[in-house]
Every structure is written in structure tokens, then in C-alpha cells.
Amino acid sequence: MKKILLLSVVAIMAMTSAKADIVTSRSFYKEGPRMTWFVRGGVSLNSISGDFVKDWKDLASASNDKMSFGMKVGFDVSAGFQRYFGKKNAYWGLELGIGTRGFSSKYDDVYTTHVDGNDVDKTDTYKASLNNINVKLPIFFGYCQPIGEHLKIDAHVGPYVSYDFSRSAKDDDGIFESHRSYSTLKDMAKEDVLGLDVGAAVGIGLWYDHFLFDITYQKGFFETVKYGGNKATSSHIMFRIGYGF
Q1: What would the 3-class secondary structure string for the chain be?
Q2: Tens of each residue's pLDDT in the chain, 245 residues
Q3: pTM over 0.70
């Protein structure tokens, strides 16, 4: 009888302890936030638009010349995180990166020269480019939707701020000086290209397990160039691959 009573007490104490552990775990355990840390990098296609571009094209056209602006190939590398809202697929994130911005341009100087007593039309082509390196801080909000066992589509949008800490310019034969009496592009890069920029970005990515392929478009709102009243803003298209952990 004593043995049965002792066994009963032990069993009751074990059940009470187990129930207390369950209550404690349910009451006080809180799951931490879901986060994904990532690194990514790739190619950036940089360009500008605005009055600076329009006025240069108009000046060239008035002399039967041709001025064109194109994209300058650069790079973009960054590290950051995505923090999800509870158990939802929506998240917010922060990123710190180094990238480039700038543009390329080509000036076709059309003129007539005399060769063996005949008038011959000729064209001299000059190229110039600007390629600044900056540090930038994007903040973004996104939604990551699974579409299979291993695949997820990741759409995101948000603002960014950047600052150029290095400026590099190339200028064939002083195109900005010899044509239209402007300073050289190198002088413009030092004095008239504004380093600070604030803009917005929108992008979409595809996750395969931990690997990411992302395409993002960024549009700056601040003036890239403030030169003689001619203003321009920068834009970037980035193709990047990354890894999340």
C-alpha cells in the first residue's frame, strides 16, 4: 500500500511539473523576428537626363553637329537585411553599398574641307564620360512571394541617399572646352557635379533557395550637374546577384 501511494505521489508530481513546463513555454517563450541577411553585387548602367542633356543637343544641332548621351557602365555592391513583419511575407530592409553614377557622351563635329579642289564633308568624333563612385544607403519595403518549393519572387520599393566620394572624368581633346567655350569635363567634375543625391528605387528579384538575382531601377531627385543653368538628374539600372543567410 505504501508503495502504491508513493508511486501515485511521484506520478502526480511528474505530471504537474510537465504541465508547468508547457504553461511556461507557452506563456513566456516568444519567437524572434524573421530576418534575412544578404550580400549582392553586379553591374550598374548609369545615365543622366534633364536640361543639361537637352541644351547640349540643341547647341550641337544649331551647328549641324550631333551630341548624344548614353549609359556609363559601372558597378554596385552592398550588404543589408530584410526583416519580416511577423509571419507575413511583407518586410522592410536596410542596405549599405558602394556604387557608381555618371554618363557617357559623344560629340560628332561635322564640317566641310577641301580635298583636291573639292568640298568633302567630314566628321570628327569626340567622347567624354563621367564616372563617380559613391556610398549609398537605401531603405526599402518589399513582399516576398513563394512560387514553388525553392523559388520566391521578391518585389521592393523605397528611398535612398548617396554621396560621391570619388570623381573620375574622361574628355577627348577638351570637347567641353573647344566646342561652345565651356570648361573641360574634368573641371566640371570637380566644381559643378553635386555629390549628394536623394532618390527612389523600385526592383524585383528572384530567390532560388539562398541565391538571388535582382533588377533594380533608381532615379535621383537631386541635381547631378549644375553648370551654367543646365541641370540634370541621374538614373541607374542595376543587375545584381546575391546570397542570403
Answers
A1: CHHHHHHHHHHHHHHHHHHHHHHHHHHHCCCCCCEEEEEEEEEEEEEEECHHHHHHHHHHHHCCCEEEEECEEEEEEEEEEEEECCCCCEEEEEEEEEEEEEEEEEEEEEEEEEECCEEEEEEEEEEEEEEEEEEEEEEEEEEEEECCCCEEEEEEEEEEEEEEEECCEEEHHHHHHHCCCCCCHHHHHHHCECCEEEEEEEEEEEEECCEEEEEEEEEECCCCEEECCEEEEEEEEEEEEEEEC
A2: 544 444 444 454 554 555 445 444 444 445 567 999 999 999 999 998 888 788 878 878 887 888 888 999 999 999 999 999 998 999 999 999 999 998 888 888 888 787 777 777 888 887 888 888 999 999 999 999 999 889 999 999 999 999 998 877 777 655 444 444 344 555 555 556 778 899 999 999 999 999 999 999 999 998 876 655 667 899 999 999 999 99
A3: yes
